[in-house]
Amino acid sequence: MKTLILFSLLSSSLLAKPTYYTLPQGYEQLSACAKQQILWDQIEKTKHKELPEFKKFGALQLLGMGIQAIRKKENCHSDVAPKGWKKYLHRRGSVAKVKIIPVENQPFSGIFEGADCGLIRLSITYRPKGKRDFAPGLALKVLRDQVPSANVSALYKLDGQGDNFNYFENPLSNIVPIGTGVGLKLVHSIFRRVSDYPEEILVDHLATRTQDGKKVRSVNSPRQIFFVPTGELSFSSSKHDVRDDFHSIPAGTTLYTVYAAPEKYDSFDYYNYEVKDIKKFVSESTPVANIVTTSPFISSEFGDTGIFFRHELRPKREKESKKY
Asked: Do 93 and 166 touch, CB atoms closer than 8 A?
């Protein structure tokens, strides 16, 4: 009887097929801004009339993540989710069009030199309830002419920022400390199947091509970047639906300044990276670019389940030694 109940739960909760979106033929050969418009049209078309509830993240969802091929998150280069893909973390959020404006004389190449057509998705990792803290996270997609987009995700900490619901309270980064809770350790173990560095998303691919899709001859990329709130935005720290905050942000708002950690930390052992290091690393970092909205934020079904943000995972150590 227990087996039947478990099977029923799995069938309804984990194995339910998500909506599958397709891109028009020849999409990849389009310009960056044409691709952005195609994705934005889908976001507007599927805009939520009423905001759906944040879903819980528990044992069944952890099991689903274990069953799902995490490698897809790295190997899929499409701007829409592969068939059968289900989002277990950051399931609800809001998306806006953005541009990247470089800081004068910044040293990094590729997208760090600026980009006109990108999308940013702001979300929270899971529903904050009980012992689960409020955990903000962003995903940035920069479209490029005739080649796949560049993507990066960032968090503050895996276990969030306590009961403070001000989304722009803390800097977010592509590298975060290892989580300490039981659930976070399980998530770490799941991602360890494909990477020895589950808490790090690589950003060097952002530096390999400019927004026109051309390869950079002399690639220069930081290892760690921080998305530091500019202070333009500050919302209530009390419990509320942060998507309402996102919807109030007008086009033309500078959301974040991107900072690059100094080169001396390129060889830092991030297995020893702790919460206390975040403030120190940010204070030593230098500004690279500003991320500015070029539209309002929209919460939509396509923004929640259709758009896909690839993770460039740092490989296993034995593979890394061969690569570099």
From this structure: no
